[in-house]
Amino acid sequence: MSKLTTQHRAFVSLGAALASVATGIVLGVGTAAASRSAVHAAAYRLTATLTPSQEVPAVQAPRASGHFHGVLFRTGLGTARIASLAGCKVVTPPRRSGLPTEINCGGASVNLPGAPGQWRLVWRLTVNGLSGPATAADIHLASPGFAAAVAFMLCGPCASTTHGIAAVSSSQGSALVAGDSYVNVSTVAHPSGEIRGQIARTTIGFSAGS
């Protein structure tokens, strides 16, 4: 299970930053209909619309809904390249400060740690009309119509708008971009999930080969 660090600092403009990926991608652009093979790109934009009807079985919560936005990118390919793909700017720390290099996306700053080839998911989740506060939001690895155990947690409890960054494995990254994963939000009334949304890949970035 991947380790998650939820950041509640300068992510107020993350929604606009994630949307900018569609125009920031510069090479190898494709669609979700592309090959469902292992992850071979530098950056992907991911989205999901969460509804009660997608739960297995479906849940009766007519006012509940949610939206998930994310950027999945690979470390070790060069900060400038990742920033270009994501439509962001490189923030270089002062010399000898010991601070990490960051990319700034419309006011949201994200560190770029990790050894070459590791994957990071920067995400933003909004929920509305739930029966009560969201007790947890998780990523599960399964196709539409099927349920699976939690792969990794996004937040718990969760505010109406929550954001963060997670490290993901290669197999988890492959499931995220192949349409074989979903976001699930739980409440006290529906501990197994009140709203669910299948994650879809909307754009592909720079091809890195096999």
Q: How would you describe the overall organization of this protein?
A:
By secondary structure, the chain is mostly beta strands. It has one domain (4-204). It has four helices and 13 strands. It has a six-stranded antiparallel β-sheet with strand order 1-10-7-3-2-13.
Topology, please?
Blueprint: E1 4-5, H1 14-19, H2 21-24, E2 43-50, E3 65-74, H3 79-86, E4 89-91, E5 102-105, E6 108-111, E7 119-128, E8 136-140, E9 150-155, E10 161-168, H4 170-178, E11 182-186, E12 195-198, E13 200-204
- Poorly predicted regions: 1-38, 206-210
Query: Mean pLDDT score, rounded?
Result: 75
Total beta strands = 13
SSE order = EHHEEHEEEEEEEHEEE
Domain module count: 1
C-alpha geometry: elongated
Range of helix content: 10-25%
Strands of the widest sheet, in order across it, are 1-10-7-3-2-13
The helix tally amounts to: 4
- Please compute the radius of gyration using only Cα atoms: 17 Å
Q: What proportion strand?
A: 35-45%
For the termini, the CA-CA separation is: 24 Å
Structural class: mainly beta
